[in-house]
Specification:
single chain; 243 residues; alpha/beta; two-stranded antiparallel ribbon; 13 strands; 23% strand; globular
Length: 243
C-alpha cells in the first residue's frame, strides 16, 4: 500500500546579518526532526510545506493529511477579534497566513488535520474560537505551562474527555504531557468539542466531530513520551488511508 502523504508546516527564520546570530545569514525554513520521525514511524510519508500561500489549494489536493506544527510565535489576536495585543505576543505573519490558507483548504476537503501546540491554537481560531493571550495573566493559580524540565519529560497531566475522538484514539482518560506554551484556547467555536483539560482549567485539546478527523492538542506528541502520543500519529495515518 502506498504511504499516505502527510504535510508538515515548516517554521521560518529570516536569518541574521550577523553570522553569530543563527545558523544562516539568510532566510530559511526549518522543522524539528522528531516531527518527521514520528510521522514516518507511524506509517506516513512526511513532506515539509514551504509558505507558498498561493499554492495552498494545490497542496490540499495532493496531501492525504496535514500536521500544523508548533513554533515559538503566536496567532495574531486580530484574527479572533481581540482589540489589543499582549506585550508577550510575537507574530510571524507569513507563516500564519500560509497555515491559515492550507488548513482551511484541507478542512474544506474534509481531509485529516492534526494541530500541535500553536497549530492547535490556529485550528481553534479557524473553527471560530478565541485564545488566552498570556496564561499567567488570565488564569488564576495556573500551572507552569512553560515547563522548566526537558521537553522529552512530562510537565503535567491532562484529563481526556470520555467519548471524544482523543479518548477513542488514546484509550485513556488521562495523559501526562509536555508543556511549552504561554497561550491557550479560551473559547471554542460552535460545534467544537473540548477533549482535554489541565488541572488548572486550561484547555489542552479540541476536536470537531462534524469532520472525519479534525483534532488539536496543546502539548507536543512528536516527542512520543507516552503511548497516547504515538497513537495520535497512528490515528492520523489511519484516517488518511481511509480516504
Amino acid at each position: 500500500m502506498t504511504q499516505p502523504l502527510i504535510g508538515l508546516t515548516l517554521d521560518s527564520d529570516e536569518g541574521s546579518l550577523n553570522s553569530k546570530g543563527g545558523v544562516s545569514k539568510t532566510a530559511r525554513y526549518q522543522l524539528r526532526a522528531n516531527y518527521a520521525e514520528a510521522m514516518a514511524v507511524a506509517g506516513g510519508m512526511p513532506v515539509g510545506l514551504p509558505h507558498a500561500e498561493c499554492a495552498a489549494e494545490a497542496y490540499a489536493d495532493r496531501l492525504d493529511a496535514l500536521v500544523v506544527t508548533g513554533g515559538a510565535f503566536d496567532v495574531d489576536p486580530a484574527l479572533f477579534g481581540a482589540e489589543s495585543k499582549h506585550a508577550t505576543v510575537s507574530l510571524k505573519p507569513g507563516r500564519t497566513g500560509f497555515e491559515l490558507a492550507v488548513t482551511q483548504a484541507m478542512l474544506k476537503r474534509k481531509k485529516p488535520v492534526l494541530g500541535i501546540c500553536g497549530g492547535e491554537q490556529l485550528l481553534n481560531v479557524i473553527l471560530g474560537g478565541t485564545l488566552v493571550q498570556h496564561i499567567e495573566d488570565e488564569i488564576e493559580d495556573s500551572l507552569l505551562h512553560e515547563q522548566p524540565n526537558p521537553r522529552n519529560q512530562p510537565g503535567h497531566a491532562v484529563a481526556v474527555t470520555p467519548g471524544s475522538l482523543l479518548h477513542r484514539v488514546t484509550g485513556t482518560t488521562e495523559i501526562k504531557v509536555n508543556s511549552a506554551h504561554h497561550q491557550a484556547v479560551k473559547s471554542v467555536g460552535p460545534g467544537v468539542v473540548v477533549n482535554a483539560v489541565a488541572k488548572d482549567g486550561v484547555i489542552e485539546g479540541i476536536e470537531d466531530p462534524r469532520l472525519p478527523f479534525c483534532l488539536g492538542v496543546q502539548w507536543h506528541p512528536e516527542y512520543r513520551i507516552t503511548e497516547g502520543d504515538r497513537k495520535l500519529f497512528q490515528a492520523l495515518v489511519a484516517a488518511a488511508e481511509k480516504r
